[in-house]
Design goal:
By secondary structure, the protein is an alpha+beta fold. The chain contains 13 helices and 17 strands. The longest helix has 32 residues.
Length: 597
């Protein structure tokens, strides 16, 4: 179990960011905006390329009815956008747009926003609340995905160990080879079956929906899974042919080349369906991802093979085999460091992000643990070198009785058989071999801790994507001109409790010096309208020591409003908004608003 967890280690965190999703950068119309006339399209722009679903858009009008839409498509052939055509007879009022797409790393993402035509409705229509993912489908899919990572590393690493390190007895390696192949085959089938329900957020029972399956399997993640299944079947044919060879001590060059090509092909099925295939420097990123996956498999899968040889082989592994693996592991770690640094830079985007973002801080913790892991691996390499320098006294001792028996054959009976060679000494009698075992097991223990941090990292939005999304949110949150003489902005909030996040959409009319009307609508964590016990809003003009002026909002049954907020002077006012979601939970947010004459 520990070895299985270890094999996930760098595979899950390698293609940084492996588990994070596409982030919404901008919307057209903008979130919370008011437009004079109905737009022809609704367009979303993301931080990376996305795949579209049949039901990628659901739009609800002021009457809470669903608006008929055209087929979703990419805008101007841009793979990082999603667009849908609107009917030409949209009525005035507020519209809620619920969207769902598939990000480049094969994970579905969803959300919602509002815009108004002509003037805002008293209350925004609420889209039916549906979960972003079905818990059973998501759990099964993620489990199969992680098992596929483990199986690929086990299969590729064990095969590489057998071919490159050439252990004299490969029988202990049959179990990891068969386990790796069958696990990869079964997990790939499960991923193919669950691909459509996973994308649509439905239960596993919908896996037989023909139209959904066809759409899912013709997308990039589906095609990558089909290619992986074909490569797995081809791998089985090659393994069967190798198992029938009469001289297994050497692998023919043709078989080595075929195995290398299959390993590269398998790694490409991950790189082609994850973040390496989108964003900046795609060719270099995909090459780095493939090398990272192969190096991880050779190191960690080979480490599993080495432990089986050390513990389960009938005779101790010769120092030459251990030395060859030491060289292979050193080369693999070098590749991992180089590709890991590049992929971390690609996910971070800037040095300040290391300390200023959750992704960067989590990455720092992982880097510290990986440094400890490499230190232990260095100790293993030292014990390997000492093991290789130990004279083979056991082998010499084993040959002495045979020589004595041969020289003294004249004194033995003619039908007496030569004495059998003495049994091999227990490998635990070799202090260098015992130390190597211990250091390898410590590598496993440290790697399990790194795995826990890596799991957190893969579920954290990359700093580069976070910065791009934040710039889009900042533009959307800034005061935007809608109707002449009105200002609309959106203020996110988080009270620090489960489900205590959301946003407040505020409209200030006319947004100028004098008397103003204010409307505030509160949305919860699921982007649906919620009722809060209290909403307070004050305005202060610090530069002229005016305020705070209380807007005195009142609950109008679904939204908060006032018609008699007076702002007497022009300037940059500080709006302080306090949202109380329960008797004990509240949060205060501030925003700067420019008020002109």
């Amino acid at each position: 179990m520990l070895l299985g967890s270890l094999l996930v280690l760098l595979l899950l965190g390698g293609a940084a960011p492996a588990g994070a999703h596409a982030a919404l950068r901008a919307t057209d119309p903008e979130d919370g905006s008011v437009v004079k006339s109905a737009p022809r399209h609704v367009t979303l722009t993301f931080t990376e390329s996305v795949g579209l679903l049949e039901d990628s858009f659901r739009i609800y009008g002021p009457d809470n009815r669903r608006v008929p839409l055209g087929e979703p498509e990419h805008a101007r052939d841009s793979s990082d956008t999603a667009r849908v055509e609107l009917p030409g007879d949209l009525a005035d009022g507020t519209y809620t747009v619920a969207w769902r797409v598939v990000s480049a790393d094969s994970h579905p993402v969803s959300g919602a926003f509002t815009f108004s035509v002509g003037k805002p409705s008293p209350t925004a229509p609420a889209a039916p609340t549906t979960p972003d993912e079905h818990p059973v489908t998501a759990s099964l899919y993620d489990t199969a995905r992680y098992l596929a990572y483990i199986a690929a590393a086990l299969l590729i690493g064990t095969a590489a160990f057998a071919a490159l390190c050439r252990p004299p007895d490969t029988r202990p390696l049959r179990l990891p080879l068969l386990t790796g192949w069958w696990t990869l085959f079964a997990s790939t089938l499960v991923l193919l079956i669950l691909r459509a329900p996973y994308e649509n957020g439905t239960s596993p029972a919908t896996a037989l929906d023909t139209s959904a399956v066809t759409r899912a399997l013709t997308g990039r993640p589906g095609l990558a899974l089909l290619a992986r299944l074909a490569l797995v079947l081809l791998t089985a044919a090659i393994l069967l042919r190798l198992s029938r060879r009469r001289t297994p001590d050497r692998t023919p060059p043709a078989h080595l080349a075929a195995g290398a090509a299959l390993a590269v092909g398998l790694a490409l099925t991950w790189a082609a369906a994850e973040h390496a295939s989108a964003g900046i420097q795609v060719p270099l990123a995909m090459t780095s991802s493939v090398l990272h996956l192969l190096a991880t498999a050779c190191w960690l899968g080979g480490l599993t093979a080495l432990l089986l040889i050390l513990y389960r082989a009938p005779r101790p592994a010769p120092p030459a085999t251990v030395t060859r693996f030491s060289r292979l592991a050193f080369a693999s770690v070098t590749v991992l460091v180089v590709t890991g640094v590049y992929q971390s830079w690609r996910g971070l985007g800037s040095w300040p992000a290391l300390t200023e973002t959750s992704y960067g801080r989590t990455l720092l913790v992982k880097l510290a643990l990986v440094a400890a892991l490499l230190l232990v691996a260095g100790l293993s390499r030292r014990w390997t070198a000492r093991l290789a320098r130990v004279p083979r006294t056991q082998e010499a001792a084993a040959r002495v009785p045979e020589l004595v028996g041969a020289s003294g054959s004249a004194t033995t009976e003619p039908d007496e058989s030569p004495p059998p060679p003495p049994p091999s000494q227990d490998t635990d009698d070799d202090p260098h071999r015992r130390a190597l075992r211990r250091s390898v097991l410590v590598e496993v223990a440290v790697a399990v801790v790194v795995l826990l941090v890596t799991t957190v990292l893969t579920s954290t939005l990359p700093a580069r994507a976070e910065a791009e999304a934040a710039s889009g949110e900042a533009a959307a949150a800034a005061p935007v001109a809608g109707l002449p003489g009105s200002t609309t902005l959106t203020v996110p909030y988080d009270v620090g409790t489960p489900g205590g996040t959301g946003r407040v959409q505020i409209t200030l009319d006319p947004g100028r010096v004098g008397e103003n009307g204010v409307q505030a609508v509160v949305f919860g964590a699921d982007n649906g309208l919620i009722a809060v016990p209290e909403l307070r809003m004050t305005f202060t003009l610090e530069e002229k020591d005016v305020g705070p002026i209380d807007a005195d909002l009142t609950d109008r049954g679904g939204y908060w409003a006032t018609n008699d907020l007076t702002l007497p002077l022009d300037g940059t006012w500080t709006m302080k908004l306090t949202i109380r979601t329960s008797d004990v939970d509240q949060v205060t947010e501030t925003r700067k608003i420019r008020i002109a004459r």
